[in-house]
Design goal:
The complex is a heterodimer of chains A (404) and B (138). Chain A has 404 residues and is of the alpha/beta class. Helices cover 38% and strands 13% of the residues of chain A. In chain B, helix 1 crosses helix 2, helix 2 crosses helix 5 and helix 4 crosses helix 5. The radius of gyration of chain B is 16 Å and the shape is elongated. Chains A and B meet through helix 8, helix 10 and helix 12 of A and strand 1, strand 2, strand 3, helix 2 and helix 5 of B.
Chain lengths: 404, 138
């Protein structure tokens, strides 16, 4: 087993060697501009892009023409929200989203708020799920867009997307879904889910960084968007700019591999994840699962280790790449807004660790991680005044803390 | 973010982890911070003839918070109460090479020292007969 171990696959994934192999010729001999219509270099590049477009569309049950390439999911989210609002502004000025969305959606919605758009940030339940009824109740005759994520990047909770899509269809409102964490991990079908716009990216599914896509429905309804980027009129005029051909080719191959391997891969992920969960939670007291017990991404585990601060814990297992909901480094000292939205107390939010398994993790790495986590938590609890107080029977909630 | 070697050393080998009897007359206890903020420090001193003969800590917080309190206990040992009052958070920042985002950890450590000293002094005053009464009865 090689150290360090990478368990931060919600953040990014390594490029699959099969993906890289497909990309390489497009940096050198097949370097053409896909928009060059007059010579073979351009045709070759265009062919690479069109194959990729089909591979990507196939994975999500869309038509190739409905795929708009962007620089990544952040750009796709921005384009979906800003593009729809600008295009449909005369129809209404209200959008609905949720409080646990990725910052690319939340911050764009807040920007639109400043521009005079009314935004409803729906709450989530204690497992992090958005209720389709809440979506329905938030709709007004001024609502032009519903934007709800498929799966959460911190806690892995999977939203009832198809039910929300159904509500949107009934009311004739466009539905955007940030599926960055869902595509390639769980089956996605934009038809069955009633999705009109969908953001996703290559680097979360073993493709390269720097390329993403926005699915934009062409039929029933035909979604229109105001562009954010003007220029050569690429991508049906919705996103100008020379296509990043090698990255797009890699994105396509990554999607093809996901389609072929997802079923087996998700079973393997779930097995490793369940072992990790049971190995850690079965051997320690006062550890809590964050997110949904069953409706969660197969590769996600998010746990709070009470009385231990997350960043200190990461420091204790520095040969394992993980992520924490603690915000000890941020100026505000505010821990994860996602966990706070679930109603997790600030103390437990500070104590949270996100494990993100991936294609290249092994059972041996999982066993090593269980062992190291237990040792590190025990080490830190021995020096935790909170653990000592709790063991003495002090109710920590009753203590008058001097917040600083 | 990369930690300084000194922070890593204190994290891996924390000095003086533990607790004294809180209600003992020769012990001063300072508990500062709040779990909601991600930092709680408990710092204790044991005093003989106005000199700190031993110090212990327990900290809930990031590596820099642990290192700050661990360092504080090292510095406190052997110091007079007066000298201990003079330990500044900036001294801790300098010794541990703390980056700007971690300065609050050193502030918390200074607060913990002050709180422990204050607790000891309060006990000492309560323990001694009231000087005014002493004068009156003589």
């Amino acid at each position: 087993m090689k150290l360090p171990i990478y368990l931060d696959n919600h953040s990014t994934t390594p490029c699959d060697p099969r993906v890289l192999e497909m990309m390489l010729p497009y940096f050198t001999e097949k370097f053409g501009n896909a928009a060059s219509r007059n010579h073979s270099f351009g045709w070759e590049a265009e062919e690479g892009v069109e194959v990729a477009r089909k591979q990507i569309a196939h994975l999500i049950h869309a038509d190739a023409k409905e795929i708009i390439f962007t620089s990544g999911a952040t750009e796709s989210d921005n384009l979906a929200l800003q593009g729809v609002v600008e295009m449909y502004r005369e129809k209404g000025d209200h959008i609905i989203t949720s409080s646990t969305e990725h910052r690319a959606v939340i911050d764009t919605a807040k920007y639109l708020e400043k521009k005079g758009i009314k935004v409803t940030f729906l709450p989530v339940d204690k497992a992090g799920m958005v209720s389709p009824d809440d979506v329905r109740n938030a709709i007004t005759d001024k609502t032009i867009l519903i934007s709800i994520m498929m799966a959460n990047n911190e806690i892995g909770t999977i939203n009832p997307v198809a039910a929300i899509g159904k509500v949107a269809k009934e009311k004739g409102i466009l539905f955007h879904c940030d599926a960055t964490q869902g595509v390639g991990k769980i089956p996605v079908n934009v038809q069955e889910m009633g999705i009109d716009l969908m953001s996703f990216t290559a680097h979360k599914i073993y493709g390269p960084k720097g390329v993403g896509a926005l699915y934009v429905r062409r039929k029933a309804p035909r979604v229109r968007l105001e562009a954010m980027m003007y220029g050569g009129g690429h991508e049906r005029g919705m996103r100008s700019g020379t296509l990043a051909v090698p990255l797009i080719v890699g994105f396509g191959k990554a999607c093809e591999l996901c389609e072929q391997e997802m079923a087996a891969e998700s079973v393997r992920m779930m097995k490793m994840r369940d072992r990790l969960q049971e190995g850690i939670m079965g051997k320690m007291d006062e550890v809590y699962l964050n997110g949904h017990p069953t409706e969660r991404l197969p590769n996600n585990l998010n746990i709070s280790f009470a009385y231990v601060e997350g960043e200190a814990l990461l420091m204790g297992v520095k040969e394992i790449a993980l992520s924490s909901g603690s915000a000890c480094t941020s100026a505000t000292l505010e821990p994860s807004y996602v966990l706070r939205a679930l109603g997790v107390g600030s103390d437990l939010a500070h104590s949270s660790i996100r494990f993100g398994l991936g294609r290249f993790n092994t059972d041996e790495e999982v066993e090593y991680t269980i062992d190291r986590m237990i040792k590190a938590v025990t080490h830190l609890r021995e020096m935790s005044p909170l653990y000592e107080m709790a063991k003495e029977g002090v109710d920590l909630k009753s203590v008058q803390w001097a917040a600083h | 973010m990369a930690y300084s070697e000194k922070v890593i050393d204190h994290y891996n080998n924390p000095r003086n982890v533990g607790s004294f009897q809180k209600d003992a007359d020769d012990v001063g206890t300072g508990i500062v911070g709040a779990p909601e903020c991600g930092d709680v420090m408990k710092l204790q001193i044991k005093v003989e003839n106005d000199t700190i003969v031993d110090a212990k800590f327990k900290t809930f917080g990031c590596g820099s918070a642990i290192a700050s309190s661990s360092l504080a206990t090292e510095w406190l040992k052997g110091k007079s109460l007066e000298q201990a009052q003079k330990i500044k958070n900036t001294d801790i920042v300098q010794e541990l090479n703390l980056p700007p985002v971690k300065i609050h950890c050193s502030v918390l450590a200074e607060d913990a020292i002050k709180a422990a000293l204050g607790d000891y002094q309060k006990k000492a005053i309560e323990k001694k007969p009231n000087p005014a009464e002493a004068v009156a009865s003589s």
